[in-house]
C-alpha cells in the first residue's frame, strides 16, 4: 500500500522523471549511509534552497497554461483521486533504503499537485496513509509520520499562497499531538483558498468512513430527529468525511504500480468513478503518465447505468 | 444414417472438448482457486448493435454466455458466483428496454427451476440480491419461488443482483441496523428501569459488524475477483463495500463474447496476486 510522506520541498524539481536515473545519489546526498533514517537525520534542506540546480515548483496563473496535446479543458475531471503505490518497490529496485522511495514519492506528489493546479482540476484526493498501514514496522510508520510533519511545515506557506486548500480525512486521533495541531492549523489557514482543494487521506479507511456516517445517523435516530426509514443515500453522503468538498465523487481514480484493486480507499465515493491503473511506480509517475491517465479518462463514455448519451 | 453418424461425431467432439477443459482446470487447481467470482455483465447492447441483432437479442446472447461461464466456474471449483444482472440505475433506461429485460428475466428464472437446468445439475442454491420490491411483481414472485426451490442445494451458490446498487444496500443495512439497535435499546431500557442498572451508551452505537450483518450480500464471503467486460473500468455501484481488497479484471470482450480464455486469464492473475491479497486479508 502506498504511503507517501508530505516532504514537499521547494527545492526539488517539478518533474520527477530524472530520479529514475542511476545518478540518483547526487540528488539525494543524505542517503549515502543507506540507513533507514539517513534522510531524517540530516533534516530537510533550508526552505527555498535550490538543490543541485533544480528549480522550485511553478504554479502558473489559472488558465494561462496551455494543456498538453490531446487534452481538452472542458473534459478535465473535476476531482482526481490517487493511490500512490510503489514507493518501496521503487527503492528496492535501486538498492536504496525505503525512505528514499518515500522521498522520491513526495517529489512526484508535488509534481501532481502543481499539474492539477495548472490544468484546472478542482479537487485532488491522495491516499497518504491507510488504516491498514499501521501493521507495517513501527520504525517505518514513525519515520513516515516524521516526514509528513516536516514536509507539511515546509510547504504550507507556499501552498497557501498558491491558493491550495488543504483538508484531512481519516482518523487523526491516533497521530501524535504536534502533527494533529499542525494538520488543524493547515486546514484553518487554507480554508478560504479555492484554486485546488487538496484532500489528504491519513489513517483513512473507506469502510470506516461509511460506518462513522451511519453512526452519526443512528444517533439522530436515537435522538428522534429522523426515523430509520428516512435514512437515504443523500443523508449518508452528507455525513461522509468527503462532505468538505462540493465534488465528493472522484471522476478519475489513478492507482500506480500495476496493482489492480481499491484497497479500502473511498468506497462509497468511487461508485461511478473511472478507474485507471498505471504500470509506473509512484515516484516515476510524472507529467507524461498523468497526461495519459487524463487522456484515457476524456475518451471514456460515462453512462451511469442509463442511456448512452 | 448420415444424420445419426453426425450426431455421434458431434457428441464425441463435445466430450473431447469437455475432457480437455477438465484437464485444464486440474492444472489450474494446482494453484489457489478463487472462492468467489463476481461479474458485471456489460456490453450486451453493444454486441447487438455490432452484429445488427434485434432489440433484446444482445441480452439473450448474453444469457447464453452466462450459462457457459457459470458452468465453467463450478467445474473449476469456484463456490460462489455473483452477477450484476440489473442495477437500480438501469430503471432509467427506455421503458420498452426495461420491460424486455424483465420479460427475459422472468423467462429465465422459470427456466432455472426446471429439472434439467444448470442449478439442479450442479446443486446450486440461488439468491436474488437487491431491493426486490422495485421489481415488477411477476419477476419478484418468480425470484422468491426460485430461492425457495433451491434452498436445499448446497454445492455452490449463485447470487443474482437485481434492482441492486451498493449504496442502496448500505442504506438498507444502516436502516435495519438502526431499527434493530433501537428495538434492543428500548427493551433493555425497560429492563433497566425495573432493575435500576447503569446505562451503557456504547451499546447504542452501531458498529461495522452491525452493518455487515444486515447487508444483502452477507450470505457470501467477499469476492476474490471482480470481472467487468467490455473494457470499461469502473464499478458502477456494484459491491463497493465487498470489493475493497478484491482483484479487478476488465477484459475488452463484450459480455456475450466472454469465454473460457478470459476466465483462465483472470484466475492466473488472481494466483499471481494471491500472496499479497492474503496478507491484506489476514490483517484485522
SSE layout and pairing:
The complex is a heterodimer of chains A (309) and B (284).
Chain A: H1 24-27, H2 38-42, E1 79-83, H3 87-93, H4 98-119, E2 123-130, H5 138-161, E3 164-169, H6 177-189, E4 196-204, H7 206-222, H8 233-239, E5 252-255, E6 274-277, H9 287-298
Parallel strand pairs in A: 1-2, 1-5, 2-4, 3-4, 5-6
Chain B: H1 2-28, E1 36-40, H2 44-50, H3 57-76, E2 80-87, H4 95-112, H5 118-121, E3 124-129, H6 137-149, E4 156-164, H7 166-195, H8 208-213, E5 225-228, E6 247-249, H9 260-282
Parallel strand pairs in B: 1-2, 1-5, 2-4, 3-4, 5-6
* Largest pleated sheet of chain A: 6 strands, parallel
| Beta-strand share of residues of chain A | 5-15%
Largest interface: A-B, 42 and 49 residues
Oligomer: heterodimer
CATH overall fold name of the domain at 32-166 and 221-282 in chain B = Undecaprenyl pyrophosphate synthetase
Q: Give the H and E element order of chain B.
A: HEHHEHHEHEHHEEH
Helix % of chain B is 40-55%
Please give the largest β-sheet of chain B: 6 strands, parallel
Structural class of chain A: alpha/beta
In helices, the fraction of residues of chain A equals: 25-40%
CATH architecture of the domain at 32-166 and 221-282 in chain B: 3-Layer(aba) Sandwich
What's the mean pLDDT score of chain A?
79
How many angstroms separate the termini of chain B?
A: 67 Å
Strand order of the largest sheet of chain B: 3-4-2-1-5-6
Mind telling me the CATH class of chain A? Alpha Beta
Main sheet: strand order of chain A: 3-4-2-1-5-6
GO molecular function (chain A): ditrans,polycis-polyprenyl diphosphate synthase [(2E,6E)-farnesyl diphosphate specific] activity; magnesium ion binding
Family (chain A): Belongs to the UPP synthase family.
EC number (chain A): 2.5.1.-
GO cellular component, one term (chain A): chloroplast stroma
Amino acid at each position: 500500500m502506498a504511503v507517501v510522506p508530505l516532504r514537499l520541498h521547494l527545492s526539488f524539481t517539478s518533474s520527477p522523471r530524472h530520479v529514475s536515473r542511476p545518478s540518483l545519489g547526487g540528488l539525494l546526498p543524505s542517503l549515502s549511509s543507506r540507513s533507514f533514517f539517513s534522510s531524517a537525520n540530516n533534516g530537510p534542506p533550508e526552505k527555498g534552497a535550490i538543490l543541485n540546480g533544480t528549480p522550485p515548483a511553478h504554479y502558473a496563473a489559472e488558465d494561462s497554461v496551455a494543456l498538453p496535446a490531446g487534452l481538452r479543458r472542458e473534459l478535465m475531471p473535476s476531482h482526481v483521486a490517487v493511490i500512490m503505490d510503489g514507493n518501496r518497490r521503487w527503492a528496492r529496485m535501486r538498492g536504496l533504503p525505503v525512505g528514499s522511495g518515500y522521498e522520491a514519492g513526495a517529489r512526484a506528489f508535488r509534481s501532481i499537485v502543481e499539474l492539477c493546479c495548472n490544468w484546472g482540476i478542482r479537487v485532488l484526493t491522495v491516499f497518504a496513509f491507510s488504516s491498514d498501514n499501521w501493521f507495517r514496522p513501527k520504525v517505518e510508520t514513525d519515520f513516515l509520520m516524521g516526514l509528513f510533519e516536516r514536509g507539511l511545515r515546509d510547504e504550507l506557506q507556499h501552498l497557501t499562497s498558491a491558493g491550495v486548500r488543504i483538508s484531512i480525512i481519516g482518523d487523526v486521533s491516533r497521530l501524535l499531538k504536534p502533527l494533529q495541531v499542525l494538520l488543524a492549523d493547515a486546514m484553518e489557514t487554507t480554508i478560504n483558498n479555492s484554486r485546488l482543494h487538496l484532500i489528504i487521506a491519513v489513517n483513512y479507511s473507506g469502510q470506516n468512513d461509511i460506518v462513522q456516517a451511519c453512526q452519526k445517523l443512528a444517533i439522530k435516530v436515537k435522538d428522534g430527529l429522523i426515523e430509520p426509514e428516512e435514512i437515504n443515500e443523500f443523508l449518508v453522503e452528507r455525513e461522509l468525511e468527503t462532505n468538505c468538498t462540493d465534488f465528493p465523487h472522484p471522476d478519475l481514480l489513478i492507482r500506480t504500480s500495476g496493482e489492480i484493486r481499491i484497497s479500502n480507499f473511498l468506497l462509497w465515493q468511487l461508485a461511478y468513478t473511472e478507474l485507471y491503473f498505471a504500470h509506473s511506480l509512484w515516484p516515476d509517475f510524472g507529467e507524461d503518465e498523468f497526461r495519459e491517465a487524463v487522456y484515457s479518462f476524456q475518451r471514456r463514455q460515462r453512462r451511469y447505468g442509463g442511456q448512452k448519451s | 444414417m448420415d444424420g445419426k453418424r453426425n450426431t455421434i461425431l458431434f457428441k464425441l467432439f463435445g466430450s473431447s472438448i469437455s475432457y480437455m477443459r477438465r484437464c485444464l482446470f486440474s492444472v489450474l487447481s494446482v494453484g489457489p482457486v478463487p472462492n468467489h467470482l463476481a461479474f458485471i455483465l456489460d456490453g450486451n447492447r453493444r454486441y447487438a448493435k455490432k452484429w445488427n441483432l434485434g432489440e433484446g437479442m444482445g441480452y439473450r446472447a448474453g444469457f447464453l454466455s452466462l450459462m457457459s461461464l457459470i458452468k465453467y466456474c463450478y467445474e473449476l471449483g469456484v463456490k460462489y458466483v455473483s452477477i450484476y444482472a440489473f442495477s437500480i440505475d438501469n430503471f432509467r433506461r427506455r421503458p420498452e428496454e426495461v420491460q424486455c429485460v424483465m420479460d427475459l428475466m422472468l423467462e429465465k428464472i422459470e427456466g432455472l427451476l426446471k429439472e434439467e437446468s444448470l442449478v439442479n445439475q450442479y446443486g446450486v442454491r440461488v439468491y436474488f440480491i437487491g431491493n426486490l420490491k422495485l421489481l415488477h411483481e411477476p419477476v419478484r414472485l418468480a425470484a422468491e419461488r426460485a430461492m425457495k426451490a433451491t434452498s436445499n442445494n448446497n454445492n455452490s451458490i449463485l447470487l443474482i443482483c437485481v434492482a441492486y446498487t451498493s449504496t442502496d444496500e448500505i442504506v438498507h443495512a444502516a436502516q435495519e441496523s438502526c431499527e434493530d439497535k433501537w428495538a434492543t435499546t428500548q427493551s433493555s431500557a425497560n429492563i433497566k428501569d425495573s432493575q435500576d442498572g447503569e446505562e451503557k451508551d456504547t451499546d447504542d452505537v452501531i458498529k461495522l459488524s452491525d452493518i455487515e450483518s444486515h447487508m444483502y450480500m452477507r450470505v457470501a464471503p467477499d469476492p476474490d475477483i471482480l470481472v467487468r467486460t467490455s473494457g470499461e473500468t469502473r464499478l458502477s455501484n456494484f459491491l463497493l463495500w465487498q470489493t475493497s481488497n478484491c482483484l479487478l479484471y476488465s477484459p475488452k470482450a463484450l459480455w456475450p463474447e466472454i469465454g473460457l480464455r478470459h476466465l483462465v486469464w483472470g484466475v492466473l492473475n488472481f494466483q499471481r496476486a494471491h500472496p499479497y491479497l492474503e496478507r491484506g486479508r489476514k490483517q484485522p
